[in-house]
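Before the break, one more example. Copy the sequence into your notebook; we will annotate it together after we see the structure.
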Amino acid sequence: MTIIVAVQFSKGVVIATDSRVTYEDLPLMRDQERKIHSLNDKVAITAVGLTGPCDRLSKEISTCTGRTSNLAIDDIIEKAEDIMWNFYKRNKERILEDDDEEDWAIQLYSWNKMVDIEKTGFSQEEYHYLCEGSGKPYAEYILRQRYKPDLTEQECKKLTAYAVLQTSRIDPSVGGPINMAVIDKKGFRDIPKEEIEEIVENVTEPLEEYEIKIQKLVDEIVEERRWINDLFMRKFKSNLLRQNEKAISEIQRGCKNESDFTNRIAALSLLIDEMEIPKGEEKIEGSINKLEAFAKNKLPKLEPACITTLREIHILRSKKMPIHKDDPKILQVLLEWEYKVPPNWSNLWTKALTRYKDSLLILKKALK
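Here is what the structure looks like once it is written out:
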């Protein structure tokens, strides 16, 4: 698992990655992996996916093209495509044996070209920016919002660092120190650690204590959701919690008033609505009801507090602003959670996140 972000500027390409590697079947990880390498002075290579295949393919491509080779980028791409396809053919049965096997891909860069090569050998040239890895949906969202065609090299460094940093706050499989390199007409060069740290410091906005608390809660929620999907996949061969980068981005934001709370609780409710219960409960309406029915048969140790909390979050979701404080169900939850009406919206939002996290912990316990 990883994130790789590359952005073009007029004279070259800036490449940035995280340094986290997950391994084995559990979400265990280490944070010191170097993910950007030079094939020769003018061509760089990165990879995403399973560490074993990626390492073997990178080495084979490097050996075939030669580190001191004067091959043009197009010739290297052609050779890499053949290497990827031959590797896939040799291992096709192993790959197809497990439908849930993680994909892998190789990316090649010259000063004016970025190419992504899939495991079957098909390549796709990317323009303006390239983004690959488990955190791609989050990083893509950031790049779409912030990319401009006339960025300078320094602006590209800041943008790639920001994309990796923000993605690491949403995707728990992305993290560790940022690696960065530039490839231009002069050739390939690594960006020193000190310069990267300065860039990261400049793009990181200082957080107030309240925002730090919210961020910590969301980080824990993302991590627990990942654990649950891993356990659910082992037990029932499917994921329970669908990824939704926009909703995760929304719940990371602070809450100052009722309008903020309405938007945040809607995003949190969406994460609950998008639970994907395995087949068997199709006649039942609503994701929470489906989970409750599924748990009776498959997760008998699931504590009722989990379902209760999810329902209370749903009750607080409003179909329109302002929240209907005359609704007896909403009043009941508000008084139970905050003890007053109207509530302190900042406190209420913190409690909503805390209770959602607690419900995930209960669910994880039942799955274990």
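The CA atoms of residues 42 and 187 lie 5 Å apart. The chain has a mean pLDDT of 85. Try to locate both features in your own notes.
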